[in-house]
Amino acid sequence: MASSSLTFRFGIVFTLSLATYPAQPYGSVFGAEPTVKPIRALLVLGGCCHDYETQQELLSKGITERAHVDVVIAYDSDKTTKHLNPVYESPVWARDFDVVIHDECSSGVTDLALIDRILEPHRRGLPGVILHCGMHSYRSEGYPEVTPWFEFTGLQSTGHGPQVPIDVTYSSPDNAITQGLANWTTINEELYNNSAITLLDSATALARGKQTIKNKQGRQRVEDCVVVWTNNYRDTARVFATTLGHNNETVADSRYLDLVTRGLLWSCGKLNEQYLKSK
Question: CA torsion angle for 89, 106, 77, 21 (degrees, to 10)?
Fold first, then answer.
């Protein structure tokens, strides 16, 4: 496997092939030794259109500060949509991880055999978290209808509008993930569409986003889409997903990081006081 395009980060940066050296997880550099066994999360990111070099730090630090989670980062520096993150070159790429955070932007990776390799651990029950452009990845044959990747995400999305603030309203305030979280308005962000209008039957909406958009004539319209949800993937794996998170300011926002952290813990069945760190 080529090692030049994949960076694993374990507190400091190494560029290496998978399973070359023992990993010191990112979370171990923050605070005292936890009293519980930390969740081991793989953060996969890279590809087109986003500042993943910065966001890998924002996400890993934000999550490990909030919960007993060790984050191992697989960052691909390639800036195209057609490049497969090298972490997936190994048939056992997900071995030793408790959850995978999919934050890649890889719409041009369409080989079904590769997509099946990515999905296979989740089909066997590995929890997943899908962020922003992860929703627009792996557009295999049949797109924009339900593809294998859309079955995993739980929602079909084919594009987004302009960067305008999004009003986020939690539609299930009593849900364990969103309990105690307040509605908020983002900075300028991309609202991903719900191209089939509704979620798949296996998915449950947790929040909607509204965006007021003006056309060139000054007329306004309001776009209203699901932006946070969960998916019961094949009755086997828990998946938490949000289309929010394009810009660094949003990814660094404590409200975003609280949401993502709680969603990750829920996917692992660990959303409790034992795994949440006190603020």
Answer: -30
Do the Cβ atoms of 199 and 226 come closer than 8 Å?
Answer: yes
Supply the pLDDT for residue 30: 47
Go through the domains of the chain in sequence order and give each one's CATH number.
6-159+193-208+226-267 (3.40.50.880)
**Nearest partner of 127 among 84, 81, 169, 177, judged by Cα:** 177
Q: Which residues, including other chains, have CB under 8 Å from residue 89's CB and lie 6 or more apart?
A: 1, 18
Q: For residues 217 and 65, what is the distance between their CA atoms, to the nearest angstrom?
A: 46
Residues 138-147 have pLDDT tens digits of 999 999 999 9
Strands 6-9 and 13-15: antiparallel
Q: Which residue has the tokens 């960067």?
A: 163
CB neighbour list of residue 122: distance below 8 Å, 6 or more residues apart: 100, 128, 152, 233, 236, 237, 239
Angle at the Cα of 244 (from 41 to 140), degrees rounded to 5?
75
Q: What is the DSSP string of 211-227?
A: EEEE-TTS-EEEEEEEE
207-238 residue pLDDT tens: 999 999 988 878 899 999 999 999 999 999 99
258, 66 Cβ separation under 8 angstroms:
yes
39 touches 99 (CB < 8 A): yes
If you average pLDDT over every residue of the chain, what do you get? 89
> For 249-270, what is each residue's pLDDT tens digit?
999 999 999 999 999 999 999 9
Q: How many Cα atoms are found within 13 Å in the side-chain-facing hemisphere of 127?
A: 20
Residues 84 and 106 sit within 8 Å (Cβ to Cβ) = yes
